[in-house]
Amino acid sequence: MSQSKNPDFSILMVDDELPWLRSLGMTLEGPGGFTNLISCSDSREVSSLFEQHDIGLVLLDLTMPHVSGEELLRRINEEYPDVQVIILSGMNQLETAVGCMRLGAFDYFVKTVEEDRLLDGIRRAVRMVELQRENQAIRRRLFKKQLEHPEVFAPLVTRDAAMLAIFGYLESVSASRQPLLILGESGVGKELVARAAHQLGGGDGPLVSVNVAGLDDNVFADTLFGHRRGAFTGADRERPGMIERASGGTLFLDEIGDLSAASQVKLLRLLQEGEYYPLGSDSPCRLQARVICATHHDLAEMVRERSFRKDLYYRLHAHQVTIPPLRERKEDLPLLLRHFLESAAAELDKPVPTAPPELVSLLNTYSFPGNIRELQAMVHDAVSQHPGGVLSCDVFQRRIGDARQTGGLVPSRNPFTVLDDLPTLAEAGDLLVDAALERAGNNQTLAARLLGISQPALSKRLKQRREHA
After folding, report:
1. Which of 4, 95, 172, 178 could form a disulfide with 137 if both were Cys (CB 3.0 to 4.6 A apart)?
2. Where's the HTH lysR-type domain (predicted)?
3. How many CB atoms are closer than 10 A to CB 429?
4. Is 413 within a domain?
């Protein structure tokens, strides 16, 4: 793969003054961190450069021989309306700036402007182009309704419509260098989604994963930023941080909702400025990796409770996906069951067992608070105890029963206390039977297990109900 560039499209710098072009390029590459740059000192060559390169932003001088900047601005706006243009001129005249904005310029800067202001304006323009391209990609995906790289999502076994929509969204924003925030309960597969997003990014660097839960501020800084020799007692050699190791690839920060307040500040500064200081160093290093974060916490609620910084939250969710829990993806149960049966059998060097028809119905009665990870553990346990032939439901039944007891799923409050008129014992029994049959998909064997009675006893009760109806 080719070396990752920032941004994904080219920034074209057009000026007839070569010293200014060199100075501007050094500013963009150094403090700015932009690497996808093209210089042009002859305004007549601009049209051919547009044919040869994918240009998204033009930094344009006004006063040039041959073709003026104003004329180029007019042509670019007419022929390439999705390209943003920033005017960099030596003229500090309000009328000129207003005229350029009317012709479609994104912004106007005098060449003597402070470096920070100029870089902020260029970053805003780059972000605007990225958003335009992402929106176009999402619209194309909606019309195509198929994935361009389905092989990337193979480890995420699903046919759920919400999950497939997430896959399409990830493909649409794959070229963006903005952070991606992955939300979802524990066990839903957030790391698998992060790995898919990394593969779609196309960079040649690695995916570096860091679980930040429980890291204090000093350990967090040393883990991410690294340190120089002599930075602190015991630092007898230089140590690169995870950011440096992820260069050209992806830095995945898991459990981001558990970051301390001080570490949140450090992460915010990293994302805002795109640079960091290794411990013991006075020279900044550039962030050359895409950042993906994940958490099972409700960050929006944490912002309201002031336990998570609002500015960091909005910086993180430039792109955001929420992975639905398994209880909302019950149609995936047969696929996941088969997948985990095959993987567990391969790991244990056993033949793949046959699942009984009632097993999926049994699993459908359970809410899976541990999500896909819990189902995988159940299947592995069942296959490890399986002697051969048809798989028994007993292991699943015991684990579900144990989980319901230890998980406090039995209501602590009597559900009948809210009723003005209590049902009779016979009526309450009928309601329980109906609820059990609904959960079991009308499978009487499973419904009887849920009620704690035998299947013949349930059949007898149902027969008596039909006779008295």
Report:
1. 172
2. 436-469
3. 14
4. no
Q: Quick check: 257 and 317 in contact, CB under 8 A?
A: no
Residue 410 pLDDT: 46
Q: Are residues 70 and 193 in the same domain?
A: no
Q: Which two tokens stand for residue 417?
A: 């206390």
Same domain? For 442 and 394 the reply is no
pTM comes to: 0.74
Residue with tokens 């990394």: 198
Nearest C-alpha neighbor of 405 from the set 376, 462, 366, 444: 366
Its domain, for residue 192, covers: 150-324
CA dihedral 30, 33, 37, 39 (to 10 degrees): -30
Over residues 166-192, the mean pLDDT reads 91
Rounded distance, CA 115 to CA 105, Å? 20
Which one, of 147, 136, 212, 143, lies nearest residue 176 by Cα? 136
Q: Considering 83, 115, 139, which residue would you say is the last residue of a domain? A: 139
Amino acid at residue number 326: L
Residues 6+ positions from 164 with CB-CB distance below 8 Å? 147, 158
The mean pLDDT value for 234-258 works out to 91
**Could you report the per-residue pLDDT of 41-78, keeping only the tens digit for each?**
999 999 999 999 999 999 999 999 999 999 999 999 99
CB 35 within 8 A of CB 81: no
> What sign has the CA pseudo-torsion 398, 402, 403, 405?
positive
Which residue pairs from 220-224 have beta carbons closer than 8 angstroms and sit at least 24 positions apart in sequence?
220/259, 220/260, 220/263, 220/266, 221/263, 221/266, 221/279, 222/279, 224/251, 224/266, 224/270, 224/276
Which residues in 134-229 belong to E strands, given as ranges? 180-183, 207-211, 226-227
